């Protein structure tokens, strides 16, 4: 009976609140929870809203909302209407827990809600693979004698039975067995129809064969996706125990958000607990129940999300099927669902949106894979991940190639060293292999610079082109090959399925560190670019974990930081550049873990919700998808060159060129002085002139706008060993971290001798830079500190914006700026000061 069915004066006990999400939460918060008594104060026909009294206060509800609250009538105002009682069992308000009774107001305690009433019904459907023991459980529970057979296809259509459990009358339906809910066989279609139309049960009792979990859970995931409340009977538990394997089913149950009870269908063992669990799920008091979400990967997932959003906005469906489920089905190419959607008003719009999405997906897919198989892979990957953490087989022989590879790369001891080794190879290759094409581009940039130098007339425009544009953009563009190589490795890792394993290995470590395993996927994505990584934290359901992950993601060295590392490591650590590179990435990971731990202890205290790391089967990466990936990154990098890097370079050049001080007066004064001097040789005179030119150049830079800004900031950074030029490039690098390099390219113009600098590589110019006293501004130690600072400080503007948007609060964006800059200062200070003690 529904709350909306009651008349004025009726009293009833609340059984449960249907629906999900915000609506349910609001209603529950208003006090409409299981076991509470509600009285109708005013309910005139056609009158909306209706007034109720609950827990000593009055509330009004819209009739439509009241219709979603299930109640049992305690006392009708109009006693004549009550049908004669036939049941012998006395109906208690279901589990009106003693604490609740005590807290009730006096008048309610005087007339306890245990009056004559029919037991409440729960409609349960038995679903499971063929031959897993559904009919056995059905017979045991209902006392029926349906045919049980040890072969599939015995139950051909639904059979109903009834039994009592506690205060409920349970109506149980035995359905044919099926492996999946895809529309490939008549049984599967039949079941799906049964589950999605008016016959939709209150609870699905999913019977699984515990000896065959991997295959059985595939159906379970689909039930979950349909938004059905599921309880699992881990059947054949006797056989499973005999097999000698072990299963941590409480963890598995927590990961999947489904209560699981071991049962033996043949003897009826465990059925009582099973039905207890079923009742608690029905009443909404089971704490295990949780929505799960399978992430379908970088190609499919965005399409699913946008389609689901359109379905929510445009369609009003008669049965409450989750929009995400429909979206996944449409992308899978499910004909039945397509037809069903097509019949709905505005359904055609959804179908054309689906076609468009599929068309886009096709661009990225290869002949070998299609949307449907990717979706299946991810479901099985989800199951494999969950079982890998909870299931231990005593049979050590791996079955498939994927199992064999996984036994090595996710090995308890070897998994981590293998991961580190792979990372090391990746960064070594990025540097070593990348240095050849990098050299060619450097030569080309130098040649263009030299050409401009010799062809253009002297003047400020020439300086702008040579120092500003060629120096700035050219300094960054040389790293294009390295970035492509890095992305080559990243896409290999993603496409082969190793990325998921890397996350799996880190998951264990992260658990020890108190952080969520699932957080590691966004973190690894952060190696590419932090912005999509921060968006990827959406897959993390717990708000606290999501916030922590968002705040530490900027510590992952994105590809924009790579040019800085390459420049400095190449200039100051030419022998071990790959190692330094690897060290910087590792430092980022280490800090991320430490900071996550700190945040968890201080800002976001929360208990861990177990999550599943998905382990899809390994696939040979196709050259096409790798090339597509690399090309899109190259295009992105070049666009960045043409826009933000170019603008920043030009702006920095202007700021460093003006106010212009040419020092002509001093030079001519010197030359007249030298002409009169007869004691000096020509060489000595030449040296004196050059020295003055150098001084003038330094003064020009220091007196320019940017020099003033830099010198204003520099005292704060002096304890880190940074001079004003580095300080300036750190300031400009806030826009995007490559700008650090382009700024260095513009302001490290060498010693002011124009003819040489244009063709000189930036690394050399930096190494040879001297301050006014002739001391080198850089040293390997300073370079190391600068790399660490660039790694940690200020996430770029785009990342800060992403953090603000995704966290829903700009204070977190501000927080990420403040904490990262402070951390950068502290870490660099330690590196510089300790390094100075050790090496100088
Ligand atoms: P259904 O196809 O899912 O309806 O499965 P049935 O109920 O027909 O059972 C299939 C076979 O498994 C029958 O031979 C049952 O006796 C047997 N069976 C059912 N439950 C159990 C159990 O918990 N343990 C064992 N060892 N066998 C079971
Ligand atoms: Mg059967």
UniProtKB/TrEMBL annotation:
The keyword Iron applies. GO terms for cellular component: plasma membrane. SUPFAM superfamilies: C-terminal domain of transcriptional repressors (SSF50037), P-loop containing nucleoside triphosphate hydrolases (SSF52540). It is found in: Cell inner membrane; Cell membrane. GTP binds at residues 128-135, 153-157, 174-177, 235-238. It is a multi-pass membrane protein. Residues 121-284 form the FeoB-type G domain. It holds the Pfam family FeoA. Mg(2+) binds at residues 139, 142-143. Signal peptide: none annotated. Keywords: Cell membrane, Coiled coil, GTP-binding, Ion transport, Iron, Iron transport, Magnesium, Membrane, Metal-binding, Nucleotide-binding, Transmembrane, Transmembrane helix, Transport. GO terms for molecular function: ferrous iron transmembrane transporter activity; GTP binding; transition metal ion binding. The chain crosses the membrane at residues 414-434, 464-490, 519-536, 548-573, 579-599, 641-658, 781-803, 812-832. It comes from the Bacteria. The keyword Metal-binding applies. Residues 664-702 form a coiled coil. Probable transporter of a GTP-driven Fe(2+) uptake system. Belongs to the TRAFAC class TrmE-Era-EngA-EngB-Septin-like GTPase superfamily. FeoB GTPase (TC 9.A.8) family. PANTHER family: FE(2+) TRANSPORTER FEOB, FERROUS IRON TRANSPORT PROTEIN B. This is Ferrous iron transport protein B. It comes from Porphyromonas loveana.
């Amino acid at each position: 009976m529904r709350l909306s069915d009651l008349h004025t004066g009726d009293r009833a006990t609340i059984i449960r609140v249907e629906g999900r999400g915000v609506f349910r939460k609001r209603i529950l918060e208003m006090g409409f929870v299981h076991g509470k008594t509600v009285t109708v104060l005013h309910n005139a026909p056609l009158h909306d809203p209706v007034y109720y009294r609950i827990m000593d206060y009055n509330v009004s509800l819209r009739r439509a909302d009241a219709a979603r609250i299930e109640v049992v009538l305690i006392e009708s105002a109009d006693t004549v209407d009550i049908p004669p009682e036939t049941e012998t069992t006395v109906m208690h308000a279901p589990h009106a827990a003693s604490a609740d009774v005590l807290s009730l107001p006096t008048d309610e305690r005087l007339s306890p809600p245990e009056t004559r009433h029919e037991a409440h019904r729960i409609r349960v459907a038995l679903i499971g693979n063929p031959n897993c023991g559904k009919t056995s459980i059905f017979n045991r529970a209902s006392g029926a004698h349906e045919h049980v057979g040890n072969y599939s296809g015995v139950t051909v259509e639904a059979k109903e039975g009834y039994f009592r459990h506690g205060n409920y009358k349970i109506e149980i339906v035995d359905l044919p067995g099926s492996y999946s809910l895809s529309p490939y066989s008549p049984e599967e279609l039949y079941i799906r129809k049964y589950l999605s139309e008016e016959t939709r049960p209150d609870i699905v009792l999913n019977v699984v064969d515990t000896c065959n979990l991997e295959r059985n859970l595939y159906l379970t995931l689909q039930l979950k996706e349909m938004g059905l409340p599921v309880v699992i009977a881990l059947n054949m538990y006797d056989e499973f125990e005999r097999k000698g394997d072990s299963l941590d089913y409480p963890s598995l149950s927590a990961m999947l958000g489904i209560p699981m009870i071991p049962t033996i269908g043949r003897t009826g063992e465990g059925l009582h607990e099973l039905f207890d669990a079923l009742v608690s799920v029905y009443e909404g008091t089971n704490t295990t129940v949780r929505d799960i979400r399978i992430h379908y990967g970088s190609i499919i997932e965005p399409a699913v999300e946008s389609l689901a959003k359109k379905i929510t906005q445009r369609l009003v469906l008669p049965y409450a099927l989750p929009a995400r489920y429909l979206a996944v089905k449409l992308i899978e190419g499910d004909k039945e669902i397509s037809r069903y959607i097509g019949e709905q008003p505005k359904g055609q719009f959804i179908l054309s949106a689906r076609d468009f999405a599929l068309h886009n997906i096709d661009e990225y897919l290869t002949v070998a894979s299609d949307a449907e198989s990717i979706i299946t892979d991810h479901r099985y990957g989800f199951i494999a991940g969950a079982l890998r953490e909870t299931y231990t087989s005593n049979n050590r022989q791996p079955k498939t190639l994927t199992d064999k590879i996984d036994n090595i790369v996710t090995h308890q001891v070897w998994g981590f060293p293998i991961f580190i080794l792979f990372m090391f190879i990746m960064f070594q290759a990025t540097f070593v292999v990348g240095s050849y094409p990098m050299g060619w581009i450097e030569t080309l940039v130098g040649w263009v610079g030299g050409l401009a130098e010799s062809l253009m007339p002297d003047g400020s425009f020439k300086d702008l082109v040579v120092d500003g544009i060629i120096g700035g953009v050219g300094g960054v563009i040389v790293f294009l090959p390295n970035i492509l190589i890095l992305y080559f490795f990243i896409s290999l890792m993603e496409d082969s399925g190793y990325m998921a394993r890397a996350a799996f290995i880190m998951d264990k470590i992260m658990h020890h560190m108190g952080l969520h395993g699932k957080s590691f996927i966004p973190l690894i994505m952060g190696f590419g670019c932090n912005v999509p990584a921060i968006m990827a934290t959406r897959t993390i359901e717990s708000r606290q974990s999501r916030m922590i992950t968002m705040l530490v993601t900027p510590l992952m060295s994105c590809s924009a930081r790579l040019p800085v590392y390459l420049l400095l490591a190449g200039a100051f650590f030419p022998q071990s550049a790959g190692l330094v590179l690897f060290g910087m990435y590792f430092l980022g990971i280490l800090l991320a873990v430490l900071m996550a731990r700190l945040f968890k202890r201080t800002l976001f205290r929360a208990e861990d919700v177990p999550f599943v790391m998905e382990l899809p089967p390994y696939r040979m990466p196709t050259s096409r998808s790798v090339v597509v990936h690399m090309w899109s990154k190259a295009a992105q990098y070049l666009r960045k060159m043409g826009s933000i890097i170019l603008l920043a370079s030009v702006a920095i050049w202007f700021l460093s060129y003006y106010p212009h001080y040419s020092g002509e007066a001093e030079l001519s004064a010197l030359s007249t002085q030298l002409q009169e001097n007869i004691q000096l040789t020509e060489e000595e005179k030449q040296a004196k002139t050059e020295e003055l030119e150098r001084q003038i150049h330094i003064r020009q830079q220091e007196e320019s706008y940017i020099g003033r800004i830099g010198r204003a900031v520099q005292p704060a950074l002096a304890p880190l060993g940074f001079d004003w030029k580095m300080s300036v490039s750190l300031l400009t690098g806030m826009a995007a971290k490559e700008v650090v390099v382009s700024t260095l390219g513009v302001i490290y113009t060498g010693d002011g001798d124009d003819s040489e600098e244009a063709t000189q590589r930036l690394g050399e110019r930096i190494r040879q830079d001297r301050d006014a006293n002739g001391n080198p501004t850089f040293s390997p130690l300073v370079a190391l500190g600068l790399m660490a600072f660039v790694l940690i400080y200020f996430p770029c503007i785009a990342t800060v914006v992403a953090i603000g948007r995704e966290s829903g609060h700009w204070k977190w964006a501000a927080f990420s700026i403040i904490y990262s800059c402070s951390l950068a200062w502290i870490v660099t200070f330690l590196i510089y000061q300790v390094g100075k003690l050790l090496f100088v």
